[in-house]
Design a protein that fits this description.
Layout: E1 7-8, H1 15-23, H2 25-45, H3 53-87, H4 96-118, H5 124-156, H6 160-191, H7 196-221, E2 224-225, H8 229-236, H9 242-249, H10 251-271, H11 273-282, H12 289-317, H13 320-342, H14 369-405, H15 410-414, H16 416-439, H17 442-460, H18 465-484, H19 488-516, H20 521-559
Parallel strand pairs: 1-2
Length: about 550
């Protein structure tokens, strides 16, 4: 018997669900950021690996290789989890139980990841084995939560305005959570006189508990839209091959999935390979590239939040295709200026940035650097709006699949979102290797990475202030000599590849949606109305069958 209190009917999402569902994502993404961004940093700086430089290098190398191998499982478990969620339902709902189960497993794994080594229960090679096992378990549980969470979004409503608002709030919450954790992990070590182990242990436990609480709030207080029994029957017949069959069958979904892959790929290149180029131009160190990077991080968050908060306003006044065209144009122009003004290939150009004076941090806002922040704000803001429009289109394509082919399968469809992330990450790693090899910069980058690794291994041990200062001088001199190895021609080629590939990906992502996507506002309105009529008809037929069955049963009883 269905628990009526856990469901609602129609497209009017209950108020609590409209508020609690999207904003619970703050701690989801904060927790993900702590593992995805700072787990390796914890391993390097917390003294859980060997203090011997050679052994440290070996242990760090094993962790790196293991994490790369774990990417295979990371990519495989998304469609598997989508298949499981589509096939296996609980009486309390299709999505919320998986959200809760994933959150419980995540909280346990994250807490243990930092608690056990911080208490000194594992270290060295023992920590290496422990970290690998816990990472695989964490990834599995987070995938369970993530697929359930994002699959629930298109299932809540087909109302375009409400869907745009829910998608916007969910994206803003994710941005806030990511930024929050980045800020905390940068500020806390310098603010409190505590060990790295202690800081990571406390933040790991606190953020995992907050993640768990927020997701349990979704489980107990949010409601799912009442499921169509016909779609439930179709879901029970799902197979793993549906992941690929459905994108070839539903061309609108396939168009969105490929466009999303290209978008993620461009962003990963920008934050991965582009970051290396960033430091090559501005230099390593807190008063050079590090200072600019800090300012850019703030600009990125502010631009994304402002633009995404503005999206519902745009969605009410402009069709999605026009939004994509306008944002695509802004992305294209601002990105070119983003690189050619703040990252001039030939430094003698009139727009060349001010040469950094490491004794004066004000250089970061002077001269053409001010223009850089203007164009970077426009670029990040436009990408934020573009991404939201793409997510809304993705959800619309699921409605289209039900209307056109009679099947929704939200969990399988939305398994493509994290799968696209994994595929884009893998492609970025491959491109990174190619770029370093083609430009001849791999030797310099490897030397810098080794210098930083040796330095981190050294300071992880018990060193005097004089020894730490000496280690710092060795690191800085190695970085300086490595940077001098990079010639202008290499920098030109490196920058050209970064600029070109990213622009091609963004343009291709836009072109797919502009020329291949056909679900405009008028079409979606037609689809939503037709689906509502179909659902009402199916419900009426089931009601008649139930009533007819009861009449037959009563008649048989009377005859007896």
């Amino acid at each position: 018997m269905e628990h009526r209190t856990n469901t609602f009917e129609g497209n009017k999402v209950p108020r609590l669900t409209r508020v609690l569902y999207p904003w619970s994502g703050i701690f989801r993404d904060a927790c993900y950021t702590q593992i995805g961004t700072f787990l390796m940093q914890y391993a390097i700086t917390a003294g859980v690996l060997s203090s011997d430089p050679d052994v440290f290098t070996s242990q760090y190398g094993v962790i790196t290789v293991a994490m790369m191998i774990a990417l295979l499982w990371d990519g495989i478990n998304d469609p598997i989890m989508g298949f499981i969620l589509e096939k296996c339902h609980f009486r309390s709902g299709k999505f919320r139980p998986w959200i809760a189960l994933g959150a419980i497993g995540n909280a346990i794994c994250v807490s243990l990841m930092f608690l056990i080594p911080s208490l000194g229960l594992v270290s060295g090679w023992g920590y290496v084995a422990f970290m690998i096992v816990m990472y695989v378990l964490w990834d599995t549980f987070f995938t369970m939560n993530d697929i359930g969470y994002w699959s629930m979004l298109p299932a809540l409503t087909s109302d375009q305005k409400v869907r745009a608002k829910l998608t916007t709030d969910t994206a803003i919450a994710a941005t806030i959570g990511t930024f929050l954790m980045n800020i905390l992990m940068v500020l806390l070590p310098g603010t409190f006189q505590a060990s790295t182990k202690g800081i990571y242990m406390v933040t790991g436990i606190v953020i995992s508990v907050l993640f768990l609480v927020s997701q349990m709030v979704v489980y107990f207080l949010c409601k799912e839209k009442k499921r169509d029994l016909k779609q439930e029957e179709i879901s029970e017949k799902s197979s793993l091959l549906d992941l690929f069959r459905i994108v070839f069958k539903n061309k609108q979904l396939g168009c969105c999935a490929l466009s999303l892959l290209l978008f993620y790929f461009a962003e990963f290149i920008l934050t991965g390979i582009g970051t290396n180029y960033f430091y090559m131009v501005f230099g390593y160190g807190g008063n050079k590239g590090g200072l600019v990077a800090t300012v850019i991080s703030v600009v990125y968050v502010l631009a994304t939040l402002v633009a995404q908060a503005f999206y519902p306003f745009l969605a009410k006044r402009m069709p999605k295709q026009r939004i994509l065209t306008v944002m695509g144009a802004i992305i294209f122009v601002s990105y070119l200026l983003f690189f050619f003004i703040a990252f001039p290939i030939f430094r003698e150009t009139p727009l060349a940035y001010n040469i950094p004076d490491t004794s004066n941090v004000l250089w970061v806002f002077g001269g053409s650097m001010a223009l850089y922040y203007v164009f970077s704000f426009l670029f990040f803001g436009a990408t934020g709006v573009f991404y939201l429009a793409l997510l809304v289109m993705f959800q619309d394509s699921i409605d289209y699949g039900e209307w056109k082919y009679g099947e929704r399968k939200e969990s399988i469809c939305f398994a493509w979102r994290p799968l696209d992330v994994k595929l884009a990450s893998g492609l970025n790693r491959g491109l990174q290797w190619v770029v370093f090899a083609l430009t001849g910069t791999s030797a310099a980058i490897n030397a810098i990475s080794n210098a930083e690794g040796t330095y981190n291994a050294a300071i992880a041990g018990s060193l005097t202030e004089a020894e730490k200062e000496a280690a710092t001088l060795v690191r800085d001199s190695t970085i300086a000599s490595s940077m001098s190895m990079i010639q202008r021609s290499q920098l030109v080629l490196f920058g050209g590849i970064v600029i070109g590939v990213i622009l091609v990906c963004f343009v291709a992502s836009w072109a797919l949606l502009h020329f291949g996507y056909r679900l405009d506002e008028a079409k979606m309105e037609e689809i939503v109305k037709d689906l509502e009529k179909t659902h009402q008809k199916d419900e009426a037929e089931r009601t008649r069958e139930v009533v007819g069955g009861k009449k037959d049963e009563n008649h048989a009883t009377e005859e007896l």
